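Input.
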Amino acid sequence: MASPEPPPFVRLAAHPLRWSLLTALAGRDLRVRELVERVGQPQNLVSYHLRLLRDGGLVGVTRSSFDGRDSYYHLDLDRCSAALTATGAALHPALLREPAPAAAGVTVLFVCTGNSARSPIAEALLRQRTGGRVAAASAGTHPKAALHPEAVRALAGEFGIDLAGQRPRHLDAVAGQRFDHVITVCDKAREVCPAFPHRRHWSIPDPAAAHDPGAFRRTAAELDTRVRHLLPELAAAQGKEDRS
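Output.
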């Protein structure tokens, strides 16, 4: 009797270079040249394996809103999660993963340009997802005068979060504060944000630039997905600190 073939995720991710690319993209978005530096392989080889990962649905790409000639690659975290769950179940039904508990006492700062949509949305979603156990904050490199009304509506309508009384603030307002994690959610902010320790980037297009109210709901949904998959990382990092 012929042995069954490994599940698609195993066949795709088991290649050493593709696994290196997946792990490099875990938790942060990167450009091709940054991936080339991280994995130490030629760009044409990296691009070839990125295309296979994109064709397999594990990796996505977005055009940079700061430099339209550049692109950021990111993991499709929900697709990866579903593929891993199916892979475990194919081996044995007991190999289903339990969700990680939310970290407590961790501080996270989200940064975008205007602090009027993406970063306050991420801040509010992280606070909601952790029941306030994570100290979430946000700021902008060039803050707007007020939150975008569509951002306020998207959070209220989709997640029941009220941001009506919140105002954008400048990055200088949090200068000197300690953050365990700093996440830029805007390509332009990534280029000008100070070099905080433990900084990472999520390439999220500006929903206001789409001139479509539905863009704010899509942005909130994408940020919620990213936040959900951030929680196990925060819990794992906090566990290491507690044991040290």
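Residues 114 and 143 are 4 Å apart (CA to CA).
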